Amino acid sequence: MNMTHVFDEILKHNEAFVANKEYIPYQTDSNPNKKLAILTCMDSRLTELLPAALGIKNGDAKIIKNAGGMITSPVGSTIRSLVVSIYAFDIKQVMIIGHDHCGMSNVDNSPLIETMKERGITKEAFETFDSDDFDTARWLEGFANVEESVAKTVASVVNHPLIAKDVEVRGFVINPSTGELRPVC
Ligand SMILES: [Zn+2]
């Protein structure tokens, strides 16, 4: 299936979805009912499984996703999303949820960099953002151990100067096949 077909298929589905008022069961307001934010991985196995396994319905939680469910910068968009969630939407609890067999659980990023080069990303492009404080190749690195990564992310949130001390932050790992959730910290 090429990309155009995916877009067309989605637009066709969307037209019927709206026309048939299939949105009605999902209607809610923007204030999360459970006063909960979840930071997790963008893995496509978790799209429906994670909310279903946690009993999270539309309107219950702010769900923030990125590659690996990590915080890679104290001023990046992930921590920004958490700050906005906490202060604009009265979030009191934050769950950091990593998962087994994560695509980012491979510290060696050389296959990814090779693929980028094959797709036309030049050496100069790789060097565009490189500085004393920033290494583009390191920025793309994952982690060796999911529990350690989750614990590190929890610490990044707890110790962040812009996160209020009354916010409870816990870390978990989810199994992407069964949805089983293991507390980490
Ligand atoms: Zn993942």
Automatic annotation (TrEMBL):
Its cofactor is Zn(2+). This is carbonic anhydrase. GO terms for molecular function: carbonate dehydratase activity; zinc ion binding. The keyword Zinc applies. Pfam families: Pro_CA. Binds 1 zinc ion per subunit. PANTHER family: CARBON DISULFIDE HYDROLASE (PTHR43175:SF3), CARBONIC ANHYDRASE (PTHR43175). Zn(2+) binds at residues 41, 43, 99, 102. Keywords: Metal-binding, Zinc. Belongs to the beta-class carbonic anhydrase family. Its EC number is 4.2.1.1. The keyword ATP-binding does not apply. It comes from the Bacteria. CDD domains: beta_CA_cladeD. It catalyses: hydrogencarbonate + H(+) = CO2 + H2O.
